[in-house]
Amino acid sequence: MRRSSFLKASGGAMLVMALPRLSAPAAASDVVDYTLTAGPLRYSPVPGLNFPGLAFNGTIPGPLLRIVHGQRLRATFINKSGQGSTIHWHGMILPNKMDGADGVTQAPVRDGGSFVYEFAPDPPGTRWYHDHVSDGLLRGLFGMIVVEDPRDQRADAEFALVFHDVPKMATVAPAMMGVGKAPMTDPPGSPELIQMAPDDKMGDEVAFTAHCINGAAYPNTTRLAVKVGQHVRLRVLNANPTQTRYVRLAGHRLIVTHSDGNPLPRPVEVDALRVGVAERYDAWFEVSAPGSWLLQGLSSDPLAYEQAAIVHTEGMEDAPPMASSQSLDGVDYFTYEKAGGTGGSLSPLRGARYDFTLDDGKYGSSRWTINGKTYPHTPKIYVHRNDIVNVKFLNKTDMDHPMHLHGHVFEVTEIDGVALTSPLAKDTSLVRANGGTLRWRFRADSPAGRWLLHCHNAIHMMDGMMTLVEYV
Ligand SMILES: [Cu+2]
Asked: What's the gap in Å between 401 CA and the centre of ligand 1?
């Protein structure tokens, strides 16, 4: 048995019961106060870079917020960013007016204004918060919020890691007009590179000038100190506005337990994570020997070595770290199929059914469409309380789309026509390019209101690939 099979061997349930609680359940009356002030930040994570960033509390990413499931969050948002802004609480089921969707659940908070977001964060897990107006997300208004689950297995050490990238702002406006073209920077062997025809009309839409983990680029990233024998939990967020990230820790297999903060049907052991835009993964590893290893985002970008941090045991701080190849060839990376399993089949479809075709406009236009329309003319999903809703996406474009639903956790039930054995609970899921399909189902049991459903690629969202789930 591999040493790293500590989570895999028995599945989730027994382990959870056998292990001590992280902390006592919070009383419902507990309120945790945070203040998040958005403002301009001249951001220089690497020498020579002087990026016109926006930051919560003066840092990119914003502060890590922690709360115990059952506590209430009261987040006072003070907007000094110079432009309208809101905070969206990504992955939370919460009162509709707290969702921070500009123009849908609230008007943007004007520059100089403030707004108090108050709710009991639910469900528990690795979630995040970010601006939901114009370019705030691209410029730095994002951060992680951990809603601690008292039922979780206790980690000996835990690291919250926000993978984020600094865009060349000069490439954003052309991308929004449909004429941007930046080089593809996905790692060799990745489906992103394989699915692009050599004569494809677009590469990546936005170019990036720095690749960071928690606000810094290697070698200035914070070192992660661990001890031999520890079981270490990583909470990984991909805050890149347009690109999927592959994340690998040299010399270790990773045991993935949560996707978008939600427990997987069973832990999955892989070499690397595949983290779509806005997705989160909780992954564990065991430190079995002294050493120093790089935790890396993989990419074919020559600057990619920057997106790395050293994980080391005591006394190994200055040892040259073991690194991984930037290629995905032969690398066993996370997929929804591995997590949900195939070969069984889920119960037959019931409830309402929606078919959404994702498409793009002609080169030189800026249309990213659902059933041929751009928001707000896209077809809406109207629900009554407790309806079961099935959504099938068909992706006719040459890029994956990370489709995100606000205010709900949905289940991925089928990928490219193959039913999963166990549904995957998520809030954001990649729909494969070039004819890929994905099915979701969800129950309409969230607070009533209007909830956005959109592609989380910031360019596609701004250019129309968005609709609403509306309670009637
Ligand atoms: Cu998209």
From this structure: 4
Whole-number Å distance, alpha carbon 461 to ligand 1 midpoint, is 7
Q: Is the pLDDT of residue 168 over 80?
A: yes
Which numeric CATH code is attached to 22-149?
A: 2.60.40.420
- Taking the centre of ligand 1 as the mean of its atom positions, its distance from the CA of residue 312, in whole angstroms, is 37
Those residues whose C-beta lies under 8 Å from the C-beta of residue 323, and which sit 6 or more positions away, are: 250, 293, 294, 296, 308
CATH 3.40.1380.20 fits 159-334, yes or no: no
Q: Mean pLDDT throughout 157-173? A: 93
DSSP annotation string for 400-448: -EEEEETT--EEEEEETTEEEEEEEEESEEEEPTTT-EEEEEEE--SPS
The domain segmentation of the chain, as residue ranges, is 22-149, 159-334, 352-471
What is the Å distance from ligand 1's center to 455 Cα? Answer: 5
- CATH number listed for the domain at residues 352-471: 2.60.40.420
Distance 439 CA to ligand 1 centre (A): 16
pLDDT at site 300: 85
Q: In the predicted model, what is the mean pLDDT of the chain? A: 90
> Would you state the structure tokens that stand for residue 280, as one six-digit string?
């989160």
465 alpha carbon – ligand 1 mean position (Å): 7
